[in-house]
Design brief:
The complex is a heterodimer.
Chain A: E1 4-7, E2 10-13, E3 19-25, E4 31-37, E5 44-51, E6 54-57, E7 64-66, E8 76-78, E9 87-94, E10 104-105, E11 109-113
Parallel strand pairs in A: 2-11
Antiparallel strand pairs in A: 1-3, 3-8, 4-5, 4-9, 5-6, 7-8, 9-10, 9-11
Chain B: E1 3-7, E2 10-14, E3 19-26, E4 30-38, E5 45-51, E6 56-59, E7 62-67, E8 72-77, E9 86-94, E10 101-104, E11 108-113
The chains are: A mainly beta, B mainly beta.
């Protein structure tokens, strides 16, 4: 089973460039989310989606856009990359039912902005 | 403000020894608490979940405890193995239903040496 698949695994961008981080899940999960992980800090929520066509902002949404046109895919777009966006990005998905929801994570995208 | 704090930040132990990782949280309303294991270069993977009514839960050599009164949890690893070298992240779910927000600790980085 593929689970949550993120591409690319590594990326280097120049300041001002734009790019899209891809995330796909094959578990038919309704919930999907994007996090960034910085040294010495817990994962922080960027954007999340509770279903196709529905997205909302998380804790650190500035500089990022998302869309959810299908249940499977949840791409994250960096509009104009800045060095402060250098981080490791994780996509996660989970079921919507119940309170004991387990988030399944992709392997991460390590992004460096120079 | 919802917060999850973990200690120690890092820990080195010898193979075969036991260790205990700590997690303190101030999250309301509390839904559940999970411990995740994150290997280097990989996404977090759930080890165990603790709900409000549970005090202790084991998963092989991993035993988690929860004291809902003091808002503390611990993860005890018995007879450590080299493969236990990883970051261990305490994640508290906040909410009463719908999309529960996940609050992440910064993690404890464990190194098991031969």
């Amino acid at each position: 089973n593929a689970g949550v698949t993120q591409t690319p695994k590594f990326q280097v961008l120049k300041t001002g460039q734009s790019m899209t981080l891809q995330c796909a899940q094959d578990m038919n999960h309704e919930y999907m989310s994007w996090y960034r992980q910085d040294p010495g800090m817990g994962l922080r929520l960027i954007h999340y989606s509770v279903g196709a066509g529905i997205t909302d902002q998380g804790e650190v949404p500035n500089g990022y856009n998302v869309s959810r046109s299908t249940t499977e895919d949840f791409p994250l777009r960096l509009l104009s990359a800045a060095p402060s966006q250098t981080s490791v990005y994780f996509c996660a998905s989970s079921y919507s039912a119940g309170t004991e929801i387990e988030a399944f994570f992709g392997q991460g995208t390590r992004l460096t902005v120079v | 403000k919802n917060q999850v704090e973990q200690s120690p930040q890092s820990l080195i132990i010898l193979e075969g020894k036991n260790c205990t990782l700590q997690c303190n949280y101030t999250v309301s309303p509390f839904s559940n608490l999970r411990w995740y294991k994150q290997d280097t270069g990989r996404g977090p993977v759930s080890l165990t979940i603790m709900t409000f009514s549970e005090n202790t839960k084991s998963n092989g050599r991993y035993t988690a405890t929860l004291d809902a009164d003091t808002k503390q949890s611990s993860l005890h690893i018995t007879a450590s193995q080299l493969s236990d070298s990883a970051s261990y992240i305490c994640v508290v779910s906040a909410g009463t239903g719908g999309y529960n927000k996940l609050i992440f600790g910064a993690g404890t980085r464990l190194a098991v040496h031969p």
